[in-house]
């Protein structure tokens, strides 16, 4: 499973190094240790991201409830990361068992420490196939993790095979990287250049999973994008921006121009034009949610993917 975002905000399946963006092998702005600029680690960034942009979690859960036609007793969080989605699912489906799968023992231990009693963790690399201890499920949740899988189509076919008839697949991805500064050039240009650098390094691929999901035997029910707009700075959004730009500064250190590196250092500093002080700090982010279901006829499902 390989990372394709920049400073990732998702919950993924491999974590081979137990350090970074839940993708195991880290490209783009992630190929560095857990503690980057000023001690920012991926867990801190993911928790801040959820605190600021977490409205998409409620939206995805609502969409699952809308299409579910069977009791939801087992939910698999495929690529659970720090457990942001795991906790939301456990709170929403209190009687269900939540199986949080991640390739990092560090991350699953973190989930064990914070998760309620209905959560069970499995440390496994999803590139190696469906973990035998996971079993069948009523919901498979893959938030910002499918793009990390080496063969997404194969994973989706396997997930469908382990979903009970009528089961629900929820896939969530970022359609674009978050933006934080309202001011025009040069800061808006810096955001554009960061996007371009990530794209050039293969770290900014935001696939449309619609065709892949349907080709894997699912009935597509909805594709919905949630926009997140926090127009005024708060202590939380300042911390989020600080963590995100810290990882950009470290991850793209070898690719930034001297001018852009100096600008990032200024933003990450303590001066009047830093992220800690700027009055124009805002958050513009989004998540795209795909909700699909397994055909209720097993024979029909098998024919669709044969």
Topology (elements, then pairings):
Layout (H helix, E strand, L loop, with lengths): L41 H12 L1 H13 L6 E5 L5 H9 L4 E6 L2 H10 L4 E5 L13 E7 L8 H10 L1 E11 L5 E3 L5 H14 L9 H6 L3 E12 L4 H17 L6 H10 L13 E13 L4 H8 L1
Parallel strand pairs: 1-2, 1-4, 2-3, 4-5
Antiparallel strand pairs: 5-8, 6-8, 7-8
- Helix count, per DSSP? 10
Pairing-aware structural class of the strands and helices? alpha/beta
Count of strand segments:
8
Question: Low-confidence parts, pLDDT < 50 over ≥5 residues?
Answer: 1-39, 298-306
Mean of all residue-level pLDDT scores: 83
Shape: elongated
Return the string of H and E elements.
HHEHEHEEHEEHHEHHEH
Strand residue content: 15-25%
Question: Can you tell me the CATH topology of the domain at 28-176 and 204-229 and 285-305?
Answer: Rossmann fold
How far apart the termini lie comes to 25 Å
The biggest sheet, with number of strands, parallel, antiparallel or mixed sense and barrel status, is:
8 strands, mixed
- Highest-level CATH class of the domain at 28-176 and 204-229 and 285-305: Alpha Beta
What is the CATH-assigned architecture of the domain at 28-176 and 204-229 and 285-305? 3-Layer(aba) Sandwich
CATH H-level superfamily of the domain at 28-176 and 204-229 and 285-305: Vaccinia Virus protein VP39
**Radius of gyration over all CA atoms, rounded:** 19 Å
Task: Please give the share of residues in helix.
Answer: 25-40%
Oligomer category: single chain
């Amino acid at each position: 499973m390989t990372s394709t975002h920049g400073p990732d905000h998702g919950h993924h399946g491999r974590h081979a190094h137990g350090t970074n963006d839940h993708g195991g092998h880290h490209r783009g702005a992630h190929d560095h240790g857990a503690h980057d600029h000023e001690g920012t680690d991926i867990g801190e960034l993911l928790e801040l991201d959820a605190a600021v942009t977490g409205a998409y979690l409620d939206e995805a859960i609502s969409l699952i409830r809308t299409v579910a036609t069977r009791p939801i007793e087992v939910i698999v969080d495929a690529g659970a990361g720090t457990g942001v989605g795991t906790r939301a699912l456990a709170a929403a489906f209190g009687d269900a068992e939540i199986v949080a799968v991640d390739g990092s023992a560090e991350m699953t231990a973190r989930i064990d420490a914070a998760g309620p009693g209905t959560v069970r963790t499995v440390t496994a690399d999803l590139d190696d196939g469906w973990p035998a201890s996971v079993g069948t499920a009523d919901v498979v949740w893959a938030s910002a993790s499918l793009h990390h899988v080496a063969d997404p189509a194969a994973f989706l076919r396997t997930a469908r095979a382990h979903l009970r008839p009528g089961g629900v697949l929820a896939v969530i991805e970022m359609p674009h990287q978050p933006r934080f500064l309202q001011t025009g050039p040069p800061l808006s240009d810096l955001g554009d250049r960061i996007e371009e650098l990530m794209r050039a390094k293969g770290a900014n691929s935001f696939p449309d999973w619609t065709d892949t999901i349907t080709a894997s035997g699912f009935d597509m029910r909805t594709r919905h994008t949630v926009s997140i707009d926090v127009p005024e700075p708060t202590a939380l959004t300042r911390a989020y921006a600080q963590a995100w730009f810290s990882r950009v500064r470290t991850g793209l250190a070898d690719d930034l121009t001297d001018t852009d590196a100096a600008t990032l250092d200024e933003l990450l500093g303590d001066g009047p034009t830093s992220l800690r002080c700027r009055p124009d700090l805002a958050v513009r982010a989004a998540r795209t949610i795909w909700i699909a279901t397994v055909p209720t006829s097993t024979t029909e499902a098998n024919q669709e993917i044969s």
